[in-house]
Structure formats: structure tokens, C-alpha cells
Amino acid sequence: MSAEDTLLYLDGVSVSFDGFRALNSLSLIIEPGEMRAIIGPNGAGKTTMMDVITGKTRPDTGTILFEGGTDLTALREAGIANLGIGRKFQRPTVFEMHTVWDNLELALKAPRRPLKTLTYSATRDDRARIEEILDITGLSPKRDRQAGSLSHGEKQWLEIGMLLAQDPKLLLVDEPVAGMTDAETEQTARLLKDIAGKHSVIVVEHDMAFVRELGVKVTVLHEGSVLAEGSLDAVSANQQVVDVYLGR
Amino acid sequence: MLTRFLLMGLDKKAGVLLAVLAVLAVAVPVMALAAPPDSPWHLSTHTVALLGKYLCFALLAVALDLVWGYVGILSLGHAAFFALGGYAMGMYLMRQIGPRGVYGHPVLPDFMVFLNWQELPWYWHGFDQFWFAALMVVAVPGVLAFAFGWFAFRSRVTGVYLSIITQALTFALMLAFFRNDMGFGGNNGLTDFKTILGFDIQAPETRVGLFVATVVALAAGYTLASCVVASKLGKVLVAVRDAESRVRFLGYETERYKLFAWTLSACMAGVAGALYVPQVGIINPSEFSAASSIEAVIWVAVGGRGTLAGAVLGAVLVNFGKSYFTAALPELWLFALGGLFVLVTLFLPKGLLGLAAQVKGRWPSGRAMAAKPAGQKGI
Fold first, then answer.
1. Eight-state DSSP code of residue A140
2. Which range of residues forms the domain containing residue A147?
3. What confidence tens digit (pLDDT) does each residue in B328-376 have?
């Protein structure tokens, strides 16, 4: 498969921090519309991988292409986000001083330059879209609440809602169900599956039950490179993966 | 579009403040010019200038609150922009003196004659025109702030480090302006002004005119800042303050937003400085001192950071206190100021306006509790 047909193409990506190789010649391909789960033990390089894709960390070597042609290593965070790559952090980061509605409005796809935002006012379409996302995430009754006053789970959904508003082509989601109750986890899985229809999604997760619920192709990272790839059952049966997880 | 922009920005707080300013703009001229000097309602020229000075500081405080309260940039060098605007105005006022100086030189200001300079330095040209000086009042602080911000924000200098380099900026400017060969009058600065736009600068009418101009500038600056923070851009600024990297991942170039607010703020500070100089009659390098910038931070903290109206309130109250203290107990003023800052930081993290909001917020619930039948517990 050539790089042109892929949504995201990582080849030989390496990153070192003070001699520690966080990513070691990592190669990964995500196809348009695909949903992929990334698992791996602590320190496998999952978060660093997200950092290099979103421009937070610059790789030492390697190629990262978006939609086959755009070199992500040359861009900064905002530029990459504007290409259509959204990111959800492990710890929910919403703008706590703003209302739920304003959080979504800030994320909503619209011109991002200062002078455009200075004179911006929400169009009817914008408002309709925000209403729609409030419904999807179940946050409609709390639209005027300060985001800081939401519960942990609600903040996670708000952040997913912000990603929806951003309408990215590729979504990176870091441990979306960490610290959630079972009911919240289920709701989150449903939300993510909703999203997956129209967007490509990469989910990093520790929770195996959750990954099973998603039912998608799984990539196992270990020491900064890919150890195994396939269905969850296939990788679970892989002896190397079992060894890594059991720490042998 | 402009109307909508204005309507969005003008909340109740702004309404109250603008009303107060409107009253001042009418009452002060009447009391200064129409009331007979022996009437208790009469305001002396000195008082008018003093009030004008407070309002200049209030505009500086609004400018500072815009970057500190809403973008989280704690500038410890905002007095630099204030002083640069002041120097631009001072240069115009010096050129206005013309041949009426002590040495009677047709073009050169006195201090240049004193230093045996033969001709006007190139950067003094144009300042005989008011429009040019007025442009420089905004442009010089604006360009400096833009350049400074460009490098600082691009390099992602934030927090305490940014505060320290703003302090270094104003300190470096102070040292430079102290030098005689810089051509800004050295440590004496610029003074002995005679006229502004042809009007005698000492005349009560001119003083009143300057006061009204200051009221208008403060009202305009406040309205502008208020509209900016109420717009979506303002929401982005607050988001940058609270979680900058998250804003970047939403696709906003946060540097541009910071640069916008920072430059706008510097321009406003420049205007404040320009109005300050003709009213106090002098500008010298001590305006660049670290202490002036830090005092401005205290005004904002006292009034309530991130409220704009609080900045105005804080600047006026603290400076009123300063005028009173430095006359009554001059040796105690700095202790009082320092103590005030400590007290506000410890007990009023949201300043006086925050306190007001707290009291107001508590009041209705207190009444609701009282309305409950006795013996029944709340909730």
C-alpha cells in the first residue's frame, strides 16, 4: 500500500529524551475511516506517539505524513489541528471558566484567526450544530454551567463533544475511560462508535474490556515500536504480547 | 456589525462606569470653571489635574488587566509603554515651546542647547506636529510591544520568566533614558511645557479640557477592552490563560492571540501616558522604574483582576490613598502599599469587585435561610 492512500502514515519515527528512546523506529498506517485501538504497557510510547503526531514533540528521525502528502513534522500544533487532527487528552482538559456552550463554540469549526474571532457571531448553522452535539453528549441540560463544575465523566464527554465540534478527519483519544464508572464507560464506547462512522479514530487504552467493546483492529506497542497488530483475540494469543504484559 | 460588537461588550458594569465617567465629564468642568472660587463646590486646577492623573492611571490599569486578567500575562513592565507614550507627548510639548525657552533657541529644546548640540536629532523631527506626535503615542509602544511579544511568545516564554523579562525591558529603557546622549533630556526628562495645541497649558480651561480628554480616552479604552473580552476572541484569550496547550490543539495560534492583546494593551498604556504628561507637567526616566510597573499591578489586584471595572476602581482608590498618605504620613506610604498588596493577595484574591460579588451572592441565600420556618434545618 502506498502512502498516498493512507490517512496517517508513520515510518521509522524515533524520539529520544535524554538518551531514553521513547519511540524506536515506529511505523504505523491508519486508513481513512478506520478506528484503531493502541494498547501497550506503561512506557511503551503511546502518549509520545500522540505527541509527535500532533506536533507537541518533534521526532528525531522518521516520516509522518497526513493524507499521503502533508509532512506533519514541519508543522506546529495549531497548524496540525487545522489540517483536521483532533486530540483528546488523558486528563480531561476543558476550559473550566467557560460554560459548556462556550467550550463547544470555541472548538467549533470556524476561522481561527484573531480578527475573525473578534467579529465572530454564531450563525444559525453553528448554533444548530452545537445543539446537536449537546444532544449527542447528553450535556444539553448543563449548557450554561461552567465546565469546571461538571463531573469527571461529563468533562470527558464535553471534551469528546469539542472534538466533534472541531470535526477532524483524524481523532486521537488518550485513555477516554480512565477513572470512569461502568455506566460511563459504556456510554463513552457508544459515543466513540458514533464518531467512528465519519472520522478515523485512534484510541489509546489500558482497559481491555473497553477495547473489546470497541471491537476494532488493535496495535500493541512495546518499547517504542509495534510488537503486534490484529484483532484483539489474535494479539491476546500472541506469546510475545503475553510476555510483555506479564513482564517476562 | 460594529453595533453588535458594542452591544455585546457593554454589560451592566460597563454601563455604571460609563455613567460615572459621563457625570465626571460634566460636573468637573462646571465645578472648576463655573463655581466661584470661594464656593465649597469649587475645584482647584490642582484638584482637576489630580483627578485627571488618577484617570490616566485607571486607563493604564485597564490595559494591564486586559493582559494579566484575561490572558494571564503578568506584565511587570507596563509602565514602560505608559512612559513611552508620555515621552512622545513630551517631545511634542517641548517642540511647542519653540523660542520661548530659557536659552531662546528657535528650534532646540533647552537641554540640547545646554549640551551644546547644534541640531535636532533625527528622531525629534515631526514632533512639532500634533498629529505626528499623537500617532507616535500609539505607534512607539505598539511597535515595541509587538516586537517584544513576537519573540517572547514565539519562544513560548511564559509565567514568571515572561514577567522577569518585562521587568528587564522597562529597566533597560530606564537606564537608556537616563543617558544624556540619548537625547531625551537625561534624568531631568522633559518639562517646562508652555502650550498644547496653542492653548496655555497652565490655564484652568486647558486643564479642564485635558481632564475631559482623559475621561473620553478612559471611556473609549474601557469600552474597547470590554468589547474585546466579550467577543469570541476574548473567550479564546481566557482559554489561553487557563489551558494554553489545549487551545493550540483546537487549532488556534495562541501566539497571535497573545500578541494581539499585548500590543493593544501597550497602545492603550501609551495613550494613558500621553494624557498624563501634560497634566503633571513633566516626564522623566523614573516613570520607567520597576516600582511604577509593580504599583500598576497592585492597582489591578486591589480592584479585582480580570474584571476591567475593578482595574479602574483599584487605580483610583490606591492613588487616592497615595495622595492622602504621602501628604499626611509620607514615610508610611510604601509600608501601606506593601501591606495592602499582601492583604489583598491573602484575603481578597478577586479584589474589591470579587468581594462585592461574594457579598451579593451570599445575600439572597441568607434571606432564603431566614425565610424558612424556625426549627427546620436548611436543605
1. G
2. 84-214
3. 888 888 888 889 889 988 888 888 888 888 787 665 443 333 333 333 3
Q: Are residues A92 and A71 in the same domain?
A: no
Residues A99 and A169 reside in one and the same domain: yes
Residues of chain A with pLDDT under 50: none
The whole-angstrom distance between B229's CA and the closest CA on chain A is 9
Residue A244 in grid coordinates: 510483555
Measured CA distances, A26 to B213, B288, B342 (Å): 65, 54, 53
Buried b / exposed e along A149-181 (16+ C-beta atoms within 10 A): ebeebbbbbbbbbbbbbbebbbbbbbbbbbebe
Residues from B in contact with A at Cβ < 8 Å: 1, 4-5, 8, 228, 231-233, 235-236, 238-239, 242-243, 245-254, 256-257, 260
Question: Do A89 and A183 share a domain, yes or no?
Answer: yes
Q: Are residues A41 and A107 in the same domain?
A: no
- The three cell numbers locating residue A215: 471491537
Nearest CA in chain A to B237: A114
Residue A30, C-beta contacts closer than 8 angstroms, at least 6 positions apart: A6, A7, A8, A9, A36, A170, A200, A202
- B228–A114 C-beta distance less than 8 A: no
pLDDT in tens, A92-131: 789 999 999 999 999 999 999 998 999 888 899 999 999 9
Same domain, yes or no: A78 and A114? no
A94/A12 same-domain check: no
Statement to judge: residues A26 and A73 lie in one domain:
yes
| A92 and A54 both lie in a single domain | no
Task: Say if residue B25's pLDDT is above 80.
Answer: yes
Contacts of B57 (CB under 8 A, 6+ apart): B272, B276, B296, B299, B315, B316, B319
Cα angle: B175, vertex B176, B180; to 5 degrees: 105
Using CB atoms, which residue from A78, A96, A118 is nearest to B242?
A96
Integer-rounded Cα Rg, in Å, for chain B is 22
Tally of CB atoms within 10 A around B37: 7
Cα–Cα dist A199/A164, whole Å: 9
Q: Which of B1, B236, B256 sits opposite A119 (nearest CB)?
A: B1
Count of structural domains, chain A:
2
